[in-house]
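Today's session is about reading a structure prediction critically. Students often jump straight to the picture, but the first step is always the sequence itself: look for stretches that repeat, for charged clusters, for runs of hydrophobic residues. Only then move on to the predicted structure, which in these notes is written as discrete structure tokens rather than atom positions. Here is the chain we will use throughout the hour.
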Amino acid sequence: MKMNERAEELARARTPFVHATVVRAQQPTSAHAGDEAILLQDGTIEGFVGGQCAQNSVRKAALGALQSHESVLLRVLPDGDLHFPEAPGAAVVVNPCLSGGALEIFLEPQIPAPLVRICGATPIADALADMCELVGFGVRRSVAEAGSLDSLADTTVVVIASHGGPEAEMIRVALDAGVGYIGLVASTIRGASILDELELTDAERARVRTPVGLPIGAKTSAEIAVSIVAEVIQAIRKGGLAVTPRAAKVAIEVLDPVCGMTVAVGPDTPHLIVDGVDHWFCSSGCRTSFAATRTGS
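Below is the predicted structure for this chain, in token form.
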């Protein structure tokens, strides 16, 4: 599968990844300008942006880019020659494992847009769906039934705009699924009454907004939709609301016992089990050296 096709497949599945492109390669190195790879949250590298030593540095930087949601131009050097523009989005790593050469790789995280689940078939629900699409959010519509919220693992926001029905049950389902922002379209008095039925903890109550939306004096369905979207944006940009709450296996970081480098463990990271203990290495060379010291050869 071509790299752009794989990227489109991951985007459709709402899977976070980093697109890595070699923009400069200084010989001797096995990578060339234009080489590409996709890096996943578990450390998997699909494609080629250098040998095992370079991959370790790229993997570690890519995981950082996924966490920060910011692109980075990474320069991988074999020694301490750190002549590189100090600018936002630029970074240098010294990788003594490299035999020579240098690499500059652009790492661009691809983070799924916030996914908003809208429950109800009211004018407010319709206007909210349109507004969410306008700002680039993903949208899924559901009927106003607790059983309709069958899968919320990848959902950032649930808004209940049904003006009745099993609203308390839907709130409970969303809370139990770990959704960080749950909005209920209701008056202050009716919303408080519904929440009283649930006997929420303080932490749970903080995740439920009712009346939902910023207090901008909204009256019409479209104005209420604007206030809700504005509050969601505020929660993401300033409140730390996680855009991708999907539970994903994330690569762990360990120290190479031979060279002391930090290694982001992925499926293809050199690995050795000695006396029942796992050891990971930046390269097969370090693994061979470690094995030799343990066997006495």
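Discussion point for the tutorial: The radius of gyration is 24 Å.
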